[in-house]
Amino acid sequence: MKMRDSFAYLGNNMEKLVLENVYKNYGVVEAVKDLSFSVEDKEFLTIVGPSGCGKSSTLRMIAGLEVITSGHIILDGQKINDIRARDRDIALAFETYALYPHLTAFKNLAFPLQTKKMSKKEIQERVEETLALLHLGKYKNMKPGELSGGQQQRISLGRALIRQASIYLLDEPLSHLDAQERVDLRVQLQRIQKLNELTFILVTHDQLEALAMSDRILVMNDGRLQQIGTPEELYDNPVNLFVADFIGEPPMNFAHGTLVANRGKKLTVRCEEKAFDIPKSLTPGKDLASYINKRVIMGVRPEYIHLCQKSHPSAIDGRVYSYEDLGEIGYLMVVCNSEKFLIEVESGVSYKMHEEVFFCFEEKRICMFSEENGLRIL
Amino acid sequence: MINKENNCIHHQIADGEDLLVLKNVYKNYGSVEALKGITLVAKKGECLVILGPSGAGKTTTLKVIAGLESVKSGEVYFQSRFINNLEPKERNVAMVFETYALYPHITVFDNLASSLYALNVDEKSIEERVRNIATMLGIHPFLDRRPGFLSGGQRQRVALGRALVKPVELYLMDEPIAHLDAKLRYQMIGEFKHLQETLKISLIYVTHDWREAMSLGNHIVVLNEGVVEQYGTKEEIFKRPINTFVAQIIGDPPMNLMKGKIVHRGKKSVFKSGDIEVELKENLEEKNVILGVRSSKIHLASSSGNNLIDAEVYSSGRHGMNTVVSLKIGNEIFKTEFRSYQKFEIGQKISIQLDLAGACLFNEDEGFICVLGE
C-alpha cells in the first residue's frame, strides 16, 4: 500500500478533507476497500450507492464513530485517524434522529449552542432562523414525541446545521420525508450550503437526490469507489456498466451483442439478427482490437435515441410494445430482437401496438462496455 | 368551493360501455367519513386510474368495488346490475394488493393456478392459461420454483399473474408496483400498458403516482379527502384541471401557480402580479385570479422580446440531462426544468419568458376559469 506524508496537504486551502487508501473490515467482511478521494472547501459532495455499498461506513469513519482498519483521513491538513469523534470539528445528522425526547424542538436546536457561550439573544435568533429554513417554525414548542417522523428528521438536520463546524456530514437526511417535502428540502439544503459557504458530505441511496443537489457525486458499490465527478460527467460519461445503470431515471437502455470488425475496419455490434454500426467518429484513439469477437454491451439513454425515417443510414427497426403519454413528453417502448428500448418521444402522437418504427442513436452518446468486466470501452 | 360531486360525469353514465358505476357512495369508519359521495364510471376494456394522496380514500373505494367493505349509502352497479349486497366472490372481479401474499410452500405454477383449481377448470385449460399469462409476464422460466427464490420484481409479476389467470370481467389493482425500485417500475409500467392493451382487460388501478396515472389511465379520477376532485380522460385532467389541486397533482415539477389579477390596459387584458405584467390574447373581465403555468412553458429569454419577466435563481441542480431550477419571481417560487446543462449561481438574475398557450386561469377560490390560447 502506498504511504504518503500528510504534510503534503498542509497549506492547501482547496482540500478540506482527504481520504487515502482507507479500508474498513468488520471481521472478515471488507466493507470499504482502498478508498481515496478528496473534498474541496465549500463543496457539496454526495456519496451514493445501493444499500451495503459502504457509503454509511465511510461517513462514520470520517465522523470518528468507526475506527478505520487502515489508511489515513486528513481534515484541514491534519491527520485525524486517532482523534476522538467529539474532538473532530464535524457536525453530524443521521437517519435516526436521536433527539432529546423531553426538550421542545426549539430547545433541541438551542442545546448545541448553549455549550458554546453564545448570548441568549444570539441563540434565539439562530434557532428561529434555522427553524424557518426547515419549515419548522410552527412546531418549535412541541416535543419530538408529538411530531411526525419527517418533522423529527428535520429537527435532527437543523441541530447539525446550526452548529459551526469545519465539515457537515449528513446521512440520508431526507429519507423519512414525503415526496413534496423532500423536493422542498433539497432546495433549502443547497441554499444553506451555498449561501453559508459550508462543506457538505451527504450520503444517499437516491441518485435523483444526488443529481439534484450536488457539486460532485461519488458512486460506490461493493465497498469500492466506482466514479467521482460532476452530475453531468456521471450522466454522460459513466466509467463502467454499474455507474451507467445506477445513474439516470428512466434507466439507460442496454443491448447485448458481439463486437465485429467488417471489411474496411468498420465496427459493428451484432445483436441477434440486428447489427448496430459503431460511428467512426467514436473510435479515433481507441484500441478496440482486444475486444473484437468478444461480448459487449451497448448503452444509450432514452433521451439520446430518436425516431427517424427508414432511409436514415443508421436506422434500426423495431416494433411498438407500449406507449405512455405523460402530457409534456412520452415514452415509447420498442421491441428490437429480444430486447426492449425505452425512447423518449414527443407527447400527443399516437402509436399502434406492434407498429413498425425506426430509430437511431445520437452518435456521441453511445456507450459501450465489456460484458466480461463491465468496463467502459467506448 | 366548486361542486365536486357532480362534475361532468353524468352524461357518461348513460354510455353503453359502462362496466362499473359508483353513484354517490358514502363510507364511514366509526365517526370518520372515508368516502363522501363518490361517483365514477369504469368502462369496459379500459383502465380507470384512481389517483390521490394518502388518506384520499383510494383503497377504500377499491374495497367497496370488490365488496370487501359495505357502503353507508350510495349505489354500486356492475354491468348495469345493482350489486351493493353481493358477496366479494359473487362479483366477478379479481384484486391485486400492494403486498403480494404468495403461497411460499408451492411453486410459481401452483400459485398462478390456485385460483383456477377452485373453479373446477379442467387441467389442460389450466396448464394453457397459466403458461400463456406466465409467458406474457416473463415469468415462464420460473414456473417450477418457489416464490422465495425470486426477486421482488419477479414475485410482483407472479402476484399479478395470479390475478390475471382468473377469468373475470374486472381487475382491481392497489398500488401494485409502489414498492418496487424505481428502475423496475419504469419497466413494469410498460409491461402493464402492453398487457392491458393486448388483452383488452378492464382495469381499475389505484396509485399516488401521477406518472403511473398518466401512463396507464384512459380515464383518471382524482380523489382527495374522500371526495372526487375531477373525473375525466387523462387529456382533460392534464389540460383542463378543474382546480389547483388537480393542476398540481400531475407533473414533476408540478404546475407553477401565481396569484394576481386581470386588469385592462386599453383594449387588452393583462395578467398583473406585483410588478409583473403579461399581456393576454383573450378579453377577460377584471378580477383576482391565479395563473397556472407548466414547467415546459417557461423559457430562458434569449433576446429582447415581449412579456419578459425578471427572475432570481433560488436553487439549481440536475435531473438527468435537464437543469432543474427554482426561480424567485415576485413573491412566488417557480420550479422549472431547462432541457440542457446550464450553470446557475444562487442569486443570479435572469430573464424568462412565459409561453401562455395552454396556461390555466383559476378563480381565487381555486376553481377553473379557462385555458389560455385555445
Q: β content of chain A, as a range?
A: 25-35%
CATH superfamily of the largest domain in chain B, called what?
A: P-loop containing nucleotide triphosphate hydrolases
What string gives the helices and strands of chain B in order? HEEEHEEEHHHEHEHEEHHEEEEEEEEEEE
Name the chain pair whose interface involves the most residues: A-B, 36 and 37 residues
Low-confidence stretches of chain A: 1-12
| Number of E strands of chain B | 21
Intertermini distance of chain A? 31 Å
CATH architecture assignment name of the largest domain in chain B: 3-Layer(aba) Sandwich
Give the C-alpha Rg of chain B.
Answer: 24 Å
The quaternary state of the protein chains shown equals: heterodimer
Structural class of chain B: alpha+beta
Protein architecture, described:
The complex is a heterodimer of chains A (378) and B (374). Chain A is an alpha+beta fold and 378 residues long. Chain A contains eight helices and 20 strands. In chain A, the strands form four sheets. Chain A has a six-stranded mixed β-sheet, sandwiched between helices. In chain A, strand 12 and strand 13 form a beta hairpin. In chain A, helix 2 packs parallel to helix 4 (149-161). The longest helix of chain A has 17 residues, at 179-195. With 374 residues, chain B is of the alpha+beta class. Chain B has two domains: 18-245, Rossmann fold (3-Layer(aba) Sandwich); 256-372, OB fold (Dihydrolipoamide Acetyltransferase, E2P). Chain B is 24% helix and 36% strand. Chain B is built from nine helices and 21 strands. In chain B, the strands form four sheets. Chain B has a six-stranded mixed β-sheet, with helices on both faces. In chain B, strand 9 (219-224) and strand 10 form a beta hairpin. In chain B, helix 3 (108-117) packs parallel to helix 5 (152-165) and helix 4 crosses helix 5. The two termini of chain B are 25 Å apart.
